[in-house]
Amino acid sequence: MPLRGSAFVIMWHDIAPDADAAYNLWHTKEHMPERIALPGFLRSRRGLNRALDRQIYFTLYECDDLGSTVSPEYQRSLNFPTEWTQKVAPQFRNFKRMSCETTFTKSSGVGGAIATFRADLPAGEGKAEASGSLTSAMEEIVNLPGITGVHIGVPRPDFTNGETTEVQIRPAMTEPDFGVVIVVESIGLAELTAEQPGIQATLARAGLTGIIAQPYDMAYMLDIATAA
After folding, report:
1. 123 found inside a domain
2. How many domains does one find in the chain?
């Protein structure tokens, strides 16, 4: 199914090796339920791929709109993290978090694997213009064998980069910014990995450069219905 709402929060990271089990327990039992309980947070997904060289974890929160990512309730959770969060957050590594505006979303069902493609925009194109020109590429990708959905997110740092307690207790973000992120869903990680070169070629023909491709198994999903 298409992404819910008109915005999402997306993040990639690693975890200190001796904190991996603690992270998964915390994220499943406390953190994702805490986030889904916030106004405007509709569905969350965590991806995992231990074969990647870096950023083996991926998280996506689908939101009503960009306002949900700066709501008083969300800011309160960021500024007053739980005791468990205070123990886990310093263990994050290679962390990148961004609020994005959803400019295209098309999907049938929920895929068993997700790949993200962070990229720079074509020279001279603005974010809105680039998103529009990518529509034909999205239609081409979604028709590939095994692909079940494609989505475009335009980064909105103005809804992302506030200083909060959680920001202070995590290691500083040093990952590069990006001009657009394409999220591709598939029936499985093997199928998605097989299609990855073709997807990257399609995005390159659309003018995107500096593409960072990262495929993940979907490890856990929670939405407002299942969390109730």
Report:
1. yes
2. 1
- The tokens for 13 are 């990271």
Q: Identify which of 196, 199, 203 has the alpha carbon closest to the alpha carbon of residue 178.
A: 203
- Torsion sign, CA atoms 200, 204, 206, 209: positive
In a domain, 2, yes or no: no
Q: Is residue 70 part of a domain?
A: yes
* Tokens standing for residue 164: 């909060």
Report the predicted TM-score, pTM, of the whole model to 2 decimal places: 0.94
8 Å CB contact between 105 and 2:
yes
Domain that holds residue 156: 7-223
Task: Measure CA 215 to chain center.
Answer: 11
Q: Could you write out the DSSP letters of every residue in 69-134? A: GG-HHHHHHHHS--HHHHHHGGGEEEEEEEEEEEEEEEESS--SEEEEEEEEPPTT--HHHHHHHT
The per-residue pLDDT for range 143-178, each reduced to its tens digit, is 999 999 999 999 999 998 788 999 999 999 999 999
**CATH of residue 174:** 3.30.70.100
Nearest to 150 by CA among 194, 201, 203: 203
Residue with tokens 């407002």: 224
